[in-house]
Backbone:
C-alpha cells in the first residue's frame, strides 16, 4: 500500500469571487500527525470539507488512501471526523449519540470506546441539552476515534478542552499514530502543534505558504546572536547566513546579529576576535509561525 | 483622588454618542418576527377577502342570505363556527365562516413566534449577546412582548382593513379587528408566561398549545348549548363570539383582552426577574437513562426524530376529521335548501344529489392541503438538520447523501400515508356517530385521492431543497397554499383553464362523488417521483450549506 494517506493536487475552492483555497498541493504520509495551521479564514476548514466531500472543488482533486475524495461511500469507511463546532441532537443523551453513530458506522471497538469515555471523564447519561461546548466536543472526539479509522480529520479538536483533557487527547493521538493511523489536525494552539505534530503546513489566505517537518522549521528559522566584542568590531558582511547586523544600544562593543541557518561560519569569524559575552536567542515556535501569519 | 475622576469620565462617555440598547433590542425583535407577522396579516386579510368574494358570488340574494341565518342557528354549526351574528351581512358572514381559520392561523403564529423569540434564542445562547447589553432582563422581556403585541396589532389592522374593503360596516370591522388583535396578544402573553416557567422551547410550546387547545374546546362547549354559554367568557376564543360584531356590537367586551393580556404579561415579567437566563423556573433533569429505539440505523433514527411531530399533527387531523363527520347531518339538512352552496358545488363540478359525499370530497381536499403543508414542513426539518451541521455527523460516515435523504423521505412517505388514513378514519368515525351514510370505502378513497397531489408538492419541496436549500420552507409551503387558493377561487372567478391547470388540485376528481381519474393520479404521482429524484440528484451535486 504505497498510497499517501491524504494527497491533494491543485485543490481549489472558489465561492463566487472569494478564493477560499487556491492550488493546494499536499501529501500526508500514513502513520504521521500532520498539523494544519493558519489564521482565521485561511482555508483550513474548507480543506477538510473538500477532503470529506461535503463541498466540491472548483479545480483539482483530492485523494484519501488512493481513493478519490468524491467517492464518499468508500473513503468515509476509513475516515473519522471531528468538526470545529459540534452540534448534536438536543433530545438525546451522550450515550445515545455514541450508540447511534456507532451503529451508522457499523463497527466499533467497544473496549476502546469505554476506555475513551474513562479517559475523557465523560458522563454518558447527560443530555446533550445540558452539556457544555467542551463536553459536546468530547463526545464528537470519542465518536470519531472509537471505530479506529485509518485517517482522522480533526478541525480544532482541543479548542474547547481543558489542559487535562488536552493532555489526554495528545496521548490518544500519539497512540493512534503509533498504530499506523494518520492524524490530520487543524489548530490554532501552537503549543499543541509543537508537542504533537511531525509535520506542519501553514495556510494563509487560501494558499499553502510553507510545509515542512517541525525539526526543519526550527533549523531554518532565524536566531538572534548577541555578542560583546572587546576591541575592533568584526567584519560580518558576506558571511553565509547573516541577514542583519546592528549595534546594541547602550552596550559598548555590542552587536546584534540576525542569523538564519547554521552558525558555523559566523562562529569562525567571531573566534578571530576577543568575545567578552555571547548569547543566542532561539526563537519560540510562536515567533516562527507568526512570521508566516 | 481617582474615584471622582473616573466617575466623571464614565459620565462623559455615557453622555456622548452612546448606544441605544432599547431601540436596538426592539429592532432585533422586529426583524425576527417581522416577516412572519406580515405574512400572517396578509393571509388573514386574504382569507377575509375570499370570504367576501364567496359571499357575493354564492349568496347574492336575500333568500339565500336568510338561509344562512337558519343554518347558523344549527347547534352543530354553532359549535364549530360560533354564534352566527348577522350572517346575512357580508361582514358577519366573513367573520363567521372564516372565524375558526383566523383563530387557528393567528394562534399558531402567536405561539411559535413567542416561544421562538423568548425561549429558543435563550436555549441557543443567541440571547446572551443581547442580555449583556445595557438593558435589564425585565425591561428586555417587556420590549420583546411589546413588539409581539405590535405584530398582533398589525394582523388585527389587516383584518379590519380587509373587512372594510369587502363592504362590511366600519364599526363592526374595527371591533372585530381589535378583537383579533386582542386575542393574539392574549396568546402571546400566555405563551410568554410559559416561556418563563419552562426551560426548553419544546416544553413551552407544548404547554401553550395545550392551553390553546383547551380554550378552543371550551369555546366549542360554550357554543353547544345556551345554558353553557357562560363558559365562553372564560376563553379568549370565546370573547370574539361575545362581541357580536356587526350585530349587537358590544364594545364593552373589547376591554377584556387587554386587561387579561396585561395581567399575564405582568406575571411573565415578574417571573423573568426570578429565574436565571437560559433556564426556566422548572429545571429539567440533566441526565437520563438511554432509550435505544431508533438508534440502529438511518431510517430508525428518522422515525425517532419525526415521531413526536407526526403524532401531534395526527391528533389535530383526527380531531378535525371527527368534527367534520359530526357536521354531516347539518350539511345534509341545510345545504340541501341552500342555493348558494349548490352553486358552489356546481362550480366544483358536483350536483346537489350527492351533498354529503360532495362535502366529504371538499373537506378531503382541505385535509390533503394540510398534509401537503406537513410534508413541506418536514422537508424543511430535513433542511434544518443539514443547516445545523448535525447531518454532517452522519454524512461523515460511510453514508452517501442519497441514503440519508432517502431515509428521511421514506419516513415522510409513511407519515403522509398515516396522516391520510387517520383523517379518513376519523371522518368515517364521526360520520358513524352522527349516523350519516358514509362508508369506509368512500372516506378512505376520498383521502387516498389526494395522495398524488401531495406527492407533487413533496417532490417540489425536495427539488427546492436540492437547488435552493435556504428557501426550502418558504417556497414549498407558499406554492402549496397558492395552488390550493387557485383551485378554490379560480372556478368561482372563472379564470382561464390554463391557469387552473397549474394547480395539482385541479386535476383531482371529486372522489367519492365521481370515480377517481386513475390516469391523472398516475401522472401526478409520476411527476412527484421525478421531482423527488431531481431534488435528490441536485442535493448530491451541491455543497452542503450551513445556516
Residues:
Amino acid at each position: 500500500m504505497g498510497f499517501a494517506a491524504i494527497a491533494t493536487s491543485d485543490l481549489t475552492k472558489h465561492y463566487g469571487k472569494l478564493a477560499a483555497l487556491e492550488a493546494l498541493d499536499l501529501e500526508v504520509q500514513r502513520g504521521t500527525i500532520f498539523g494544519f495551521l493558519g489564521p482565521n479564514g485561511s482555508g483550513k476548514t474548507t480543506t477538510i470539507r473538500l477532503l470529506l466531500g461535503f463541498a466540491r472543488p472548483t479545480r483539482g482533486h483530492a485523494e484519501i488512501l488512493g481513493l478519490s475524495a468524491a467517492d464518499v461511500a468508500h473513503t468515509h469507511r476509513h475516515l473519522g471526523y471531528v468538526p470545529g463546532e459540534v452540534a448534536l441532537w438536543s433530545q438525546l443523551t451522550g450515550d445515545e449519540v455514541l450508540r447511534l453513530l456507532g451503529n451508522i458506522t457499523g463497527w466499533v471497538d467497544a473496549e476502546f470506546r469505554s476506555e475513551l469515555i474513562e479517559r475523557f471523564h465523560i458522563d454518558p447519561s447527560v443530555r446533550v441539552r445540558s452539556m457544555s461546548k467542551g463536553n459536546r466536543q468530547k463526545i464528537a472526539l470519542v465518536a470519531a476515534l472509537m471505530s479506529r479509522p485509518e485517517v482522522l480529520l480533526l478541525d480544532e479538536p482541543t479548542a474547547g478542552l481543558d489542559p487535562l483533557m488536552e493532555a489526554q487527547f495528545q496521548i490518544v493521538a500519539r497512540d493512534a499514530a503509533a498504530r499506523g493511523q494518520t492524524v490530520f489536525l487543524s489548530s490554532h494552539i501552537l503549543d499543541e502543534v509543537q508537542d504533537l505534530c511531525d509535520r506542519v503546513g501553514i495556510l494563509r489566505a487560501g494558499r499553502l505558504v510553507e510545509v515542512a517537518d517541525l525539526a526543519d522549521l526550527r533549523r531554518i528559522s532565524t536566531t538572534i546572536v548577541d555578542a560583546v566584542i572587546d576591541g575592533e568590531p568584526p567584519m560580518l558582511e558576506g558571511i553565509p547566513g547573516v541577514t542583519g547586523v546592528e549595534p546594541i544600544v547602550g552596550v559598548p562593543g555590542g552587536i546584534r546579529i540576525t542569523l538564519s541557518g547554521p552558525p558555523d561560519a559566523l562562529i569562525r569569524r567571531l573566534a578571530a576576535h576577543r568575545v567578552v559575552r555571547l548569547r543566542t536567542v532561539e526563537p519560540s515556535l510562536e515567533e516562527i509561525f507568526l512570521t508566516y501569519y | 483622588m481617582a474615584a471622582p475622576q473616573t466617575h466623571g469620565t464614565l459620565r462623559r462617555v455615557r453622555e456622548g454618542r452612546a448606544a441605544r440598547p432599547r431601540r436596538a433590542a426592539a429592532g432585533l425583535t422586529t426583524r425576527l418576527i417581522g416577516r412572519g407577522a406580515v405574512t400572517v396579516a396578509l393571509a388573514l386579510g386574504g382569507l377575509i377577502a375570499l370570504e367576501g368574494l364567496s359571499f357575493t358570488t354564492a349568496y347574492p340574494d336575500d333568500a339565500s342570505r336568510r338561509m344562512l341565518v337558519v343554518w347558523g342557528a344549527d347547534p352543530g354549526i354553532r359549535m364549530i363556527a360560533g354564534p352566527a351574528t348577522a350572517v346575512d351581512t357580508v361582514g358577519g358572514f366573513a367573520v363567521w365562516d372564516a372565524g375558526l381559520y383566523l383563530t387557528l392561523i393567528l394562534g399558531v403564529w402567536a405561539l411559535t413566534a413567542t416561544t421562538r423569540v423568548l425561549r429558543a434564542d435563550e436555549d441557543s445562547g443567541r440571547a446572551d449577546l443581547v442580555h449583556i447589553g445595557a438593558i435589564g432582563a425585565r425591561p428586555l422581556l417587556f420590549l420583546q412582548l411589546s413588539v409581539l403585541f405590535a405584530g398582533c396589532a398589525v394582523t388585527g389592522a389587516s383584518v379590519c382593513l380587509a373587512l372594510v374593503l369587502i363592504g362590511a360596516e366600519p364599526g363592526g370591522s374595527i371591533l372585530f379587528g381589535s378583537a383579533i388583535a386582542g386575542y393574539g396578544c392574549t396568546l402571546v402573553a400566555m405563551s410568554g408566561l410559559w416561556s418563563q416557567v419552562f426551560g426548553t422551547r419544546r416544553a413551552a410550546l407544548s404547554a401553550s398549545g395545550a392551553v390553546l387547545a383547551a380554550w378552543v374546546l371550551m369555546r366549542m362547549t360554550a357554543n353547544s348549548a345556551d345554558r353553557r354559554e357562560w363558559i365562553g367568557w372564560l376563553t379568549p376564543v370565546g370573547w370574539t363570539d361575545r362581541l357580536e360584531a356587526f350585530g349587537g356590537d358590544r364594545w364593552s367586551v373589547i376591554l377584556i383582552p387587554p386587561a387579561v393580556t396585561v395581567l399575564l404579561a405582568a406575571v411573565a415579567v415578574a417571573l423573568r426577574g426570578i429565574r436565571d437566563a437560559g433556564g426556566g423556573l422548572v429545571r429539567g433533569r440533566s441526565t437520563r437513562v438511554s432509550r435505544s429505539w431508533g438508534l440502529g440505523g438511518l431510517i430508525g433514527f428518522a422515525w425517532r426524530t419525526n415521531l413526536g411531530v407526526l403524532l401531534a399533527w395526527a391528533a389535530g387531523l383526527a380531531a378535525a376529521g371527527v368534527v367534520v363527520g359530526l357536521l354531516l347531518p347539518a350539511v345534509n339538512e341545510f345545504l340541501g335548501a341552500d342555493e348558494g352552496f349548490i352553486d358552489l358545488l356546481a362550480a366544483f363540478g358536483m350536483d346537489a344529489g350527492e351533498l354529503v359525499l360532495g362535502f366529504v370530497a371538499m373537506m378531503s381536499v382541505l385535509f390533503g392541503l394540510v398534509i401537503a403543508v406537513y410534508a413541506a414542513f418536514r422537508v424543511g426539518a430535513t433542511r434544518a438538520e443539514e443547516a445545523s451541521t448535525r447531518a454532517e455527523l452522519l454524512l461523515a460516515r460511510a453514508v452517501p447523501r442519497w441514503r440519508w435523504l432517502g431515509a428521511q423521505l421514506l419516513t415522510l412517505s409513511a407519515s403522509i400515508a398515516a396522516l391520510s388514513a387517520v383523517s379518513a378514519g376519523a371522518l368515517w368515525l364521526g360520520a358513524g356517530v352522527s349516523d350519516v351514510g358514509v362508508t369506509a370505502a368512500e372516506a378512505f378513497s376520498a383521502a387516498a385521492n389526494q395522495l398524488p397531489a401531495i406527492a407533487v408538492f413533496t417532490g417540489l419541496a425536495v427539488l427546492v431543497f436540492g437547488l435552493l436549500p435556504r428557501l426550502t420552507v418558504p417556497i414549498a409551503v407558499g406554492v402549496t397554499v397558492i395552488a390550493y387558493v387557485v383551485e378554490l377561487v379560480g372556478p368561482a372567478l372563472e379564470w382561464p383553464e390554463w391557469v387552473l391547470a397549474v394547480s395539482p388540485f385541479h386535476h383531482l376528481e371529486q372522489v367519492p362523488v365521481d370515480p377517481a381519474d386513475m390516469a391523472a393520479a398516475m401522472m401526478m404521482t409520476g411527476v412527484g417521483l421525478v421531482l423527488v429524484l431531481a431534488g435528490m440528484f441536485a442535493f448530491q451535486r451541491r455543497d452542503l450549506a450551513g445556516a
In short: The radius of gyration of chain B is 25 Å. Residues 294-542 of chain B form one domain. Confidence is low (pLDDT under 50) at residues 1-5 of chain B. Chain B has two domains: 26-282, 294-542.
